Amino acid sequence: MTKNTGNQGRKPSVLDNVKPLLIDVALPLGSYYLFKDAFGVSTFAALAWSSVVPAVRTVWGIVRERRTNALAGLILAVNVVSLLLSFVSGDPRLMLAKDSGVSSTVAIGILVSVRLGKPMMTAGMKPFVVKGDAAREAAWQRLVSGAADESAAFRSRERTFSMVWGLALLAECVVRVVGAYTIPVGTMVWLGSVILIAAMAIGMVVSGGLAVGPMERMLAAEVEAGRAERPAVAVAA
Asked: Which of 76, 68, 66, 100 is nearest to 27 (CA)?
């Protein structure tokens, strides 16, 4: 009798699916603001320390896995550029505008990924649609591979999801840059965070209506189609 050791055969949880996104994006960005705002370290030091995880992930992907980690590499590039800009001092408005560089670089990366046919935001959206269910995972694979009737529409919605987020973050960057040079510095220090939160809220609402909702309906229909197909195959056999 064979024992089931470790986590073999365990159904992946939502946390398992979103863990790469949390490590590549949330941890570096969160640590930057934690070091800078909570611990009061300099911008340069905060950027340097928050670059450790994406640097390790990027190097590990190249050396060990023979592939590049797009999200980790993108965040690392943003931090490197920001570190170089941090040498420019004496202009508080420039420092405020510089903070929007993270959003702009990520936004451009997302939009380029859509253009290349590999929407970057799918990694964060898929777990919430599939919900760790094997039947939904199989239906997802059929839809993205072109094997299902709704594949073209499904892939279009997938691209739309990333497009919405790319545009939302790009708009947030533009608004923050304009605000950095037109609004009093003291006001813009806290208003910048409000603008970022507003952009994320708009991104969630719009992408949910234009992409996630329709994709969930198509996925549910494909799951039912798969279940109906299995009995027919069994009878034929």
From this structure: 76
pLDDT tens digits, 183-216: 987 787 678 778 877 888 899 899 999 999 999 9
Distance CA 225, CA 213 (A): 19
Strand segments (E) across 42-82: none
Give residues with Cβ within 8 angstroms of 32, minimum separation 6: 46, 47, 50, 79
Q: How far is CA 137 from the centre of its chain?
A: 19
The angle formed by the CA atoms of residues 117, 219 and 126, to the nearest 5 degrees, is 55
Determine contact, residues 188/178, Cβ cutoff 8 Å.
Answer: no
User: Rounded distance, CA 39 to CA 46, Å?
Assistant: 9
Q: Is the distance from CB of 144 to CB of 209 less than 8 angstroms?
A: no
- Residue type at 151 in one-letter notation: S
Q: What is the Cα–Cα distance from 111 to 13, expressed in whole angstroms?
A: 29
CA distance 170 to 104: 5
Give me the amino acid identity at 84.
L
Q: Write the DSSP assignment of 183-198 as a string of letters.
A: S-HHHHHHHHHHHHHH
Q: Quick one: pLDDT at residue 120?
A: 85
CA angle 211, 217, 218 (to 5 degrees): 85
Residues 147-185 pLDDT 10s: 889 999 999 999 999 999 999 989 988 998 999 889 987
Angle, vertex CA 128, rays to CA 76 and CA 103, nearest 5: 30
| Locus of tokens 């939160």 | 197
pTM value? 0.68
